Amino acid sequence: MIDSIINSTLLLAVPLVLAALGGAIHRRAGVVNIGLEGQMLVGAFSGIIASTATGSWLVGILVGGIGGALAGLVMSLVITRLSANEIIVGLGFNIVALGIVGFTLRAVYGVSGTLRFPDQPRLPRITIPGLDEVPILGAIFSGKDVLFWFAVLLVPFLAWAFANARWGIRTRATGVSESATASLGVRTLGLRDAAGTIAGMLAGLGGVALALGVSGLFNENMIAGRGFVALAAFYFGRSRPLPTALACLLFSFFDALQIRLQTSGGFPSDLIQTLPYIAVVAVLAWAGYTGLRRRTRMTA
Hints:
Order of helices and strands: HHHHEEHEHHHHEHHHH
Strand content: under 5%
GO cellular component, one term: plasma membrane
Number of helices: 13
Pfam families: BPD_transp_2
Subcellular location: Cell membrane
Shape: globular
Number of domains: 1
Structural class: mainly alpha
Keywords: Cell membrane, Membrane, Sugar transport, Transmembrane, Transmembrane helix, Transport
Main location: membrane
């Protein structure tokens, strides 16, 4: 049972980690990305269509990432160039993305809700010989797909980039004070658009991980609030890669636990399904409390 929960937790964490890290990058540039939900949906839909059309999971990853990147760029341009409110733009984008995808499902594929292909390519899982049968370690390291390992490597890379790379330092500076950074000759709008594009790409890859890695199908409601959970994760982690990823693992653990409790029976399913969201609310409340204490100490 422990191995099963660990494996499910890590599998479910991949979409969240990718989307949350994208949101953290955008937040470091000074924009709160509310559109992660829609960007994940675009990535999942474009990725599953491309992978089925070509028979290649790799093409699905590439197209899903590009689809998410284009969605992120469009949303960022509306915010930076038209000075639109980021909250309204993000919420509006989520609604538009859901509407377009739903219309395409009905108009092109003649289905409502779920799109399933019999020969759907899946993300390959890498089995480590000798470790697969080892309790706990096997569940952690063996049988994971390529996007899992990409997410694992992305966390330390982003931590290094924010602290040392010129792009990371300029992005952080833009988020702290756009006017001061612009006075040094830095193209802050370009940096924000780049951050929005990267955020969209990572959210799109999160959607691909959900469609090709977790479920093997597409449903117009499959994101199911994960974009907002990712937002809560990078808010809790204060846009730092490692704490953000750990928050995603916490949320995914409760998601895996509620799935396990539902399959085992004996628990009211409606109540069990609320576990991940209760965890999100509790974590956000804790983050708000600690943030208030921190500000109080600074002003004391």
